[in-house]
Amino acid sequence: MHLQTKLPKVGTTIFTVMSQLALEHKAVNLGQGFPDFAVPQRLVDALARAMADGRNQYAPMHGIPALRQAIAAKTARCYGRDVDPDTEVTVTSGASEAILDAVLAVVRPGEEVIVLDPCYDCYEPAIDLAGGVAVHVPLDPQDFTVDWQRVREAITPRTRLLMINSPHNPSGAMLTEGDMRELANLLRDTDIVLLSDEVYEHIVFDGARHESVLRHPELAARAFVVSSFGKTYHCTGWKVGYAVAPAALTAEFRKVHQYNTFCTFTPAQFAFAEMIEHEPSHYEGLGEFYEAKRDRFREQLQGTKLRPLPVPGGYFQLVDYSAVSDLPDTEFCRWLTVEKGVAAIPLSPFYARPPEGQRLARLCFAKEPATLDAAIERLGAL
Fold first, then answer.
1. CA pair distance 189, 128, nearest whole angstrom
2. 46 and 58 share a domain?
3. Do the domain assignments include residue 109?
4. Residues of the chain with pLDDT under 70
5. Helix or strand holding residue 146 (H, E)
6. What CATH number is associated with residue 23?
7. What pLDDT does residue 32 have?
8. Please, what sign has the CA dihedral across residues 302, 307, 312, 314?
9. CB 191 within 8 Å of CB 155
10. Sign, CA torsion 169/174/177/183
């Protein structure tokens, strides 16, 4: 039998490749973006209690009422937007599922989706599975800001969806209130749907405000806004996220979701509902928590030949390694992992067409101090 792949551009993700290399060579893994510190105790206790109480069967397809209500209350608290927990909030098995569901819900074969490069690697495969065409618009290679004129020029009558991500992975760049005005002007009087990936929404630094699409009614009226409990509560392996969208978009989204995962891990839904309601200080203090880690790590990097770029948000540090090597980034990260014992992620897999001569790697600082210290000891010897 001859099998023709539906995803000819897709192989094993760079995150899996580098994590496997780190394991094989006993490298300090600053590649894949997962914390190595404890989940909040209240959340662990609530999960155990939910399982012990028998909350182990299928949840409602769109999420248990308590969690959807908690998400709606948090949305109002954080962004001043009232959303209907019954018709505008859907719990998903991670943000990646929500992104796939949103794309499949609105993109038809031949329609175009604008993505801003560099972008997370699950975006384009979702577009391909929908039969859509990814149209890549590069961000500024120095500070990863958006050139809205280039975005405007990329729009055609076939454009169906525009995808944004703030705080941005891999750079940490953040969209501003001015960006939101530009975006609203761009989309006004069109039928283009917006997908806003906001999984690092609470990890913002230096007194900045996260400009969620949910703060901006004109944009929110045409948007899926996706977030992740894994990023907020240090439990990426639980794979629980959600999407907020107007009722009409949510109805289409749920048509896909119900035949994708149908529902999401039930005990965790009860645990997150309790955590959001009773310990809002956790997400409110998350920026300060990670800012201390960022600042300590950046200070340590000053003793190496790696040049750290600014990090406005998220928990990744981009470094320019041109003073160490002229290798292309994928080769450099492999060398760094195998020969020097620190795993990093190259930037080129985040691009359709990487900038010529770019020498950047991504390091994750969502780690215990001892992990970062061990990495710095090895990086200092470069």
1. 27
2. yes
3. yes
4. none
5. none
6. 3.90.1150.10
7. 87
8. negative
9. no
10. negative
